[in-house]
Known about the structure:
By secondary structure, the chain is of the alpha+beta class. The chain folds into two domains: 3-131, no CATH class; 137-291, Phosphoenolpyruvate Carboxykinase, domain 3 (Alpha-Beta Complex), CATH 3.90.228. The protein contains five helices and 18 strands. The strands form two sheets. It has a nine-stranded mixed beta sheet, covered by helices on one side. Strands 10, 11, 12, 13, 14, 15, 16, 17 and 18 form a nine-stranded mixed beta sheet that branches. Helix 2 packs across helix 5 (278-291) and helix 3 (232-241) packs across helix 4. It is globular. The N and C termini lie far apart (53 Å).
Amino acid sequence: MQTKEKSYKVAGHVFTLKMDAEEVLWNALGNYEPFVCGTGSDPVFSLELVQSVQTEGKKELYISNPEDGEQRIDIYTMEDGYLFEMAPFGNVPVCGWLRVDTDFTSGCLMVEKDKRFCVNNALMLMYAFRTASLDTLEMHASVTVKDGKGFLFLGKSGTGKSTHSRLWLKNIPGTHLLNDDNPIVRVVDGQARVYGSPWSGKTPCYRNEDYPAGAFVRINRAPYDAIHRMSIPEAFASVSSSSSGLRAIKRIGDGLYSTLSSVVQTVPCYVLDCLPDDEAAIVCSKEVLGNA
C-alpha cells in the first residue's frame, strides 16, 4: 500500500496527516486545503490512519455524557499514552479509536465508519492537546472581523453565538466572518491573536487569516439588550470554559492556565445580555469597537 502525507499549518503550528494515497477521504477534506503548507517545517504532531490499534489495558480518564445530538468522546489512559473513543452521536456505537503518545506528538487512528468525522475530530483533539503548552487556545466560539480585529462570541451551545455573528454581518458594515465554531487564539510576542482554522462547525468558513483579538463577548439570552465588561477573574472563568483541553493532564492544564492569564489581562472581556435582534449587534459593537 502506497501512503500519502500532507502538511498543514494552523496558527503557525504545522501538523501532518498520513493515509493510503488512494483513500477517497482525501477528496472530502477541502476544509484543510487553505492550510496546506510545505514539508520544510518540523510538525508539532502527526496523525496516521491505520487498520488497527491496541485498546487492551485502557483505564477510564474521562467519560463523556453527551446530550441528544452531541458527539461522544471518551478518554482512557494507556501504559504509553492515551486512547480516545469517538462517535458522531452519543446514542450510536463507537466508530473511531485514536491512540496517542504521552505528549500528543504522534497518533494512530482506526476507523470503522464516518471517516471524515473521525479524522476531523482526531486532528482537532490532537491539535488542542498538543498546542496547549505552546501559548495556544483552541476555542469554542464564533468570530467576526471588523476594523482589522477579531471579536470572539462565546456561550453554551444554542445561546446564539452564530446568530450574533450573523447580526454583525447584517448590521455592522465592513464585517466578515473568520470562523463559526473553533477558532484558535495564540499569544505571539505578548499579543493575543485569533486565527481561522479547518474546524468551523456547520458553517463552511475556513479562512487562513489572523488578527489581533479585539474582545471576548459571552452571549446570554435575555429579554433586553445590555452589555457590561467583566472583571479579570470573571473573564478568566468565562474564556476558560470556552477553551478546549483536558486539565486533568498537568502539562495541558498548566499551559492553558498560563495562556488564559495572558489573554484576559490584555483583551477586554464582556457579557452581552440580549435578544437575537439587530439592536443586540448595535449595542455590542458600539461598546467593544470603542474599547478595542
